[in-house]
Design brief:
CATH topology of the largest domain in chain B: Rossmann fold
Strand order of the largest sheet of chain B: 6-7-8-3-9-10
Shape of chain B: elongated
Order of helices and strands of chain A: HHHHHHHHHH
Oligomer: heterodimer
Structural class of chain A: mainly alpha
Number of strands of chain A: 0
Helix content of chain B: 25-40%
Shape of chain A: elongated
Helix content of chain A: over 70%
Radius of gyration of chain B: 24 Å
Structural class of chain B: alpha/beta
Number of domains of chain B: 2
Radius of gyration of chain A: 20 Å
Largest sheet of chain B: 6 strands, mixed
Number of helices of chain B: 11
Distance between the termini of chain B: 41 Å
Distance between the termini of chain A: 20 Å
Largest sheet of chain A: none
Strand content of chain A: under 5%
CATH architecture of the largest domain in chain B: 3-Layer(aba) Sandwich
CATH class of the largest domain in chain B: Alpha Beta
Number of helices of chain A: 10
Chain lengths: 252, 320
């Protein structure tokens, strides 16, 4: 993978200097802060709006705080992944910067692998910040969660978001401009959601990671961990392999 | 003479359209080679094939002793490439981009810094090197494109229309840099600007509709395809006499063509010796007073147009 290290450094600098990494990190951080706060104070908010209407709202728990985080990042994370990945290859082809780089001694594997590292770095920093914020606020407002389980939960969350980003990266290698790549990413998101709705197949899709993540964060044993973990890792690997397969002979 | 680029029956088809149709070409090492053709002739396709950015439908190419292929990293070590409209990462600074490209070639530390300084100096970008590329003008981007193409001291440098988007001063500067590479690198320069070719190239190939029309040195071309041209510039206010002279000249057997351009009469002679003797008496006979009488060589532009036109005629005849 000639040129990998140089390309990784360039990709990481690009994530920082184009403000993608800081923006994603801040937004995820806000979600991390908001999730336990919303879980804690939402019943009070609803009651204050309800006026004289009598409402019975169960007392918020730690599980609600974690569920809120997983719900927020489960919705926003895949969209962030799609936005980040859509132009990574297609945009470089469109702007012809890929031509400048790929006439130098750099392999196409290195070019793609560096993009994966950049996605991991940006999404990873977002998830880490969201996790830290959520952990602290949950501890303050509810109870202290087991650190190991919470970290494992965050890693599963990162993997789930990464699946959508890598599917979009695959789309980005197939087309030559960012918008169709985003379309392919959204199609991937829908396909994954539809497959996830089929009984028996849902355990292989990213949705199953959220269930396992919730259990781990609460210090419980998840009903299923290895199958969702390995199948989603395989999904990332397959998408990257296909991206390389189609990109390696592509004319620029 | 050693060959830097060798093409053998190079074909590139897009469905039914042949962008390149059996190109055979040899470019001598150390030369500045002009690859000429009108728009859509197949120039960029050739450059893309020779740099491994595209795959040929048939035929093969050897650059710097290495077979061209998409995965050929050793080949990419030896070449430099400047795209037609070079684009860069706008968030980078000029120097930073050159350091990035240098690192891709394995340059590190002091060697990298020294080489970056050198190419910045060579392309006149030292002052602008700390600015973001997004703020560069078209000319500066072209210079940066050339700088990045030179960073590895390439054996073969591919330049796709290197000066077409530049103003006259920018063109002059870029051509001076290219001329300075003579003997050190082989420069393969695709262009449709004939004045640039005349200025810097040792040898040219003219291509049209994917086919090579001619390959020769600029002097050889001018000698081979030259028909002497006589230019007559009369004093102003003699258009009636000039038109009358033109009509008479068109009936002469020693005349190939007569054109009137911006008050000047251009005559292409079929028989230059007879023309030299007979032309001035006819001018006197028509009582024309001349400001200028000149016998000139046809420009590369005139030869180029002549060759491209005749290749079109030949094609039509083949179709019939």
């Amino acid at each position: 993978m000639r040129g990998f290290t140089v390309m990784v450094r360039k990709e990481l600098r690009e994530q920082w200097r184009t403000a993608r990494l800081p923006v994603v990190a801040i937004i995820f951080l806000i979600f991390g802060l908001m999730s336990p706060l919303l879980a804690k104070y939402m019943p009070d908010l609803i009651k204050s709006f309800a006026g004289e209407i009598q409402m019975v709202i169960p007392k918020p728990t730690t599980k609600d705080a974690i569920a809120q985080l997983l719900k927020n990042l489960g919705q926003f994370g895949p969209l962030t992944g799609i936005l980040l990945a859509m132009g990574m290859v297609a945009g470089e082809k469109e702007r012809r910067t890929a031509v400048v780089v790929l006439t130098k001694p750099v392999t196409r594997q290195a070019f793609l692998a560096a993009k994966l590292v950049a996605l991991l770095a940006t999404l990873g920093s977002g998830v880490v910040l969201a996790g830290i914020a959520c952990y602290i606020y949950t501890a303050l407002l509810f109870e202290v969660l087991p650190v190991g389980g919470f970290i494992a939960s965050c890693l599963l969350l990162l993997l789930a978001v990464l699946v959508y980003a890598v599917l979009t990266l695959l789309g980005s290698t197939l087309v030559s401009s960012s918008l169709p790549a985003a379309g392919l990413g959204l199609a991937g998101l829908m396909a994954v959601s539809l497959i996830g709705a089929i009984p028996g197949l849902s355990r292989f899709m990213p949705g199953s990671l959220y269930e396992a993540a919730q259990s781990l964060a609460l210090g419980q044993q998840p009903t299923e961990l290895m199958v969702p973990l390995l199948s989603n890792l395989a999904l990332v690997a397959l998408a990257m392999f296909l991206a390389w397969f189609f990109f390696r002979r592509q004319e620029l | 003479m050693e060959t830097a680029i060798h093409c053998e029956g190079l074909v590139k088809r897009y469905r039914d359209f042949a962008a390149l149709d059996g190109l055979d070409l040899d470019v001598p090492a150390g030369s500045i080679f002009g690859f000429l053709g009108p728009n859509g002739a197949g120039k960029t396709t050739t450059v893309r094939l020779l740099t491994g950015l595209a795959q040929p439908t048939a035929g093969r190419a050897v650059v710097s002793g290495l077979a061209v292929g998409q995965d050929s990293l050793p080949l990419r070590e030896r070449i430099g490439y400047l795209d037609q409209q070079p684009q860069f990462y706008g968030w980078m600074r000029g120097r930073e981009f050159l350091e990035f490209v240098g690192e891709l070639f394995g340059l590190r530390g002091a060697t990298l810094k020294a080489r970056v300084e050198e190419v910045l100096e060579q392309t006149g970008l030292t002052e602008a090197s700390k600015r973001r590329i997004s703020g560069y003008s078209g000319g500066m981007k072209q210079r940066l494109g050339l700088a990045q193409a030179l960073i590895n001291r390439p054996e073969v440098l591919f330049l796709d229309e290197p000066a077409s988007a530049l103003d006259p001063a920018g063109r002059r500067d870029i051509l001076e840099i290219i001329a300075g590479l003579r003997g050190r690198s082989t420069v393969f320069m695709s262009t449709h600007i004939l004045a640039d070719v005349e200025r810097v190239c040792d040898k040219v190939a003219i291509i049209n509709r994917g086919r090579l029309i001619v390959e020769a040195s600029v002097d050889e071309l001018q000698a081979r395809y030259a028909q002497p041209i006589f230019i007559l510039e009369p004093e102003p206010g003699q258009s009636a006499a000039l038109n009358a002279l033109a009509q008479v000249l068109r009936t002469q057997t020693w005349v190939a063509a007569v054109t009137l351009e911006q008050g000047e009469l251009h005559l292409v002679a079929r028989d230059p010796v007879t023309a030299s003797h007979a032309l001035l008496p006819l001018v006197v006979q028509h009582q024309l007073t001349l400001v200028r009488f000149e016998r000139g060589r046809p420009s590369l532009e005139e030869i180029f147009l002549q060759l491209v036109e005749s290749s079109k005629v030949e094609e039509k005849e083949v179709v019939r």
